[in-house]
Design goal:
Distance between the termini: 42 Å
Strand order of the largest sheet: 3-2-1-4-5-7-6
CATH class: Alpha Beta
Structural class: alpha/beta
Number of helices: 9
Largest sheet: 7 strands, mixed
Number of strands: 7
CATH topology: Rossmann fold
Strand content: 15-25%
């Protein structure tokens, strides 16, 4: 997993910046019920997405475990961010109307715990909105994907929708219609993908496979147009609704 304390200074510029953040925020808001009054954005990072989760009557807060990320987020959302582990939120049961987790579950080996904690802090009727199947979103059928795809572990991705739905069901969260959005500025280049491989960005994809990073990097270096971005990924947002408490 990446060191997000170290990544904070360059995170936004290397992740699509404002266009991607705006698309993500607009998609999340499409899934948040009109009557929602409070939303907690888990792993809010620098707050680039979080500060765009705005509409009349909705109070938005952010939580992240990385102090360096929160320093930037605090400038964008003064008084509305907290340092917290997504598995142990400093909130009572049933405290918020919506919880979002954009680009979080694929990063952690404890996705089930994050979903459980989101369910705990949601009020009955509240929604949990999360990105799912991030690995699949980045496979756009390009020549880069043709190099990487044969070596991806079939069970890679702790945010696979089937897993997330099972975790949600265990805590009273029922699937609802989701949506999607474009990852503007995230189209891969062969050179950039090789550099990311060397920095450990895709470690979970190849877990348990015999291929080495340098083998893949050499194959990527042989592709044409080393700095031409391929198609942007199309991300998927799943939505789960918390049922009423049983008496």
């Amino acid at each position: 997993m990446l060191d997000y304390e170290a990544e904070a200074a360059r995170y936004d510029e290397t992740r699509g910046g404002v266009p991607r953040a705006r698309a993500a925020a607009e998609a999340v808001l499409r899934l948040v019920p009109p009557g929602a009054r409070t939303l907690l954005d888990l792993a809010c990072g620098t707050g680039l997405v979080t500060e765009r989760l705005t509409r009349p009557g909705l109070a938005v807060y952010g939580a992240d475990a990385a102090q360096a990320m929160l320093r930037t987020a605090a400038g964008r959302l003064p008084g509305r961010v907290v340092r917290a582990d997504a598995r142990r939120l400093p909130l009572p049961d049933g405290a918020v109307d919506a919880v979002s987790a954009v680009w979080l579950l694929h990063l952690v080996p404890f996705a089930a715990d994050v979903v459980a904690e989101a369910a705990r802090v949601l009020r009955p009727g509240g929604v949990f909105v999360t990105t799912v199947d991030k690995d699949a979103a980045h496979d756009v059928g390009s020549d880069i994907d043709a190099v990487l795809r044969p070596h991806r572990a079939p069970d890679a991705g702790s945010d696979r929708v089937g897993l997330v739905t099972a975790y949600a069901a265990a805590h009273g969260l029922t699937p609802a219609p989701g949506t999607g959005f474009t990852g503007h500025g995230q189209g891969s280049t062969p050179r950039g993908t090789a550099e990311k491989l060397r920095r450990g960005h895709y470690a979970s994809w190849f877990h348990g496979t015999p291929v080495t990073v340098e083998t893949l990097a050499r194959a990527l270096a042989a592709l044409p147009d080393q700095d031409r971005p391929r198609a942007d990924p199309a991300y998927r947002l799943a939505c789960y609704v918390k049922g009423a408490a049983r008496g």
